[in-house]
Design a protein that fits this description.
Layout (H helix, E strand, L loop, with lengths): L1 E4 L2 E4 L5 H7 L14 H31 L11 H34 L8 H26 L2
Antiparallel strand pairs: 1-2
Helix pairs in contact: 1-2, 1-4, 2-4, 3-4
């Protein structure tokens, strides 16, 4: 995702809200393809914040359901077919979510190490932090769902 050349960030955007929200805080000389107006930057930042808050609320709702549902129990698999299915599902989910964790960590690391490349450094850092936290909780959520099947 990141390529460092002469202290310049070559930005290859993925098509997700976190990367777009992160990029609006970079100074213009560090963004190759994006030229946002101030109004657009505000809208992209608010959309990113909204998407991350909705994801956090959905995950909190899932954990609330698991905590207070009487019929929810975690039990071991009863056969080899269910063990294989759980393993394959968890590995596929891990492969999909791992890149989001890695991206969140890279965003935080770049924000901390290159403070001068941003107009404001705290919002992009927290965008990366929230992306990392959401990805970790999605992994935990999948473990709960697969163990209750």
């Amino acid at each position: 995702m990141f390529s460092y050349e002469k202290e310049k960030l070559e930005w290859k955007l993925t098509k997700d809200a976190s990367c777009m929200g992160y990029s609006v805080f970079l100074k213009r000389e560090f963004i190759n393809d994006l030229n946002f107006e101030d109004e657009q930057k505000s809208q992209v930042w608010m959309n990113t914040l909204l998407v991350q808050l909705i994801q956090i609320c959905c995950l909190a709702g899932c954990f609330y359901y698991y905590s207070y549902k009487d019929g929810f129990k975690i039990f071991p698999a009863q056969g080899l077919d269910l063990v294989c299915a759980r393993f394959l599902c968890s590995m596929m989910m891990h492969i999909n979510v791992e890149k989001d964790c890695r991206t969140g960590l890279a965003m935080m690391k770049y924000a901390v190490n290159h403070r001068d490349n941003f107009t404001y450094v705290y919002p992009p850092f927290f965008i990366g932090l929230f992306q990392f936290i959401i990805s970790v909780f999605v992994e935990i959520n999948v473990m709960f769902i697969l163990s209750a099947m």
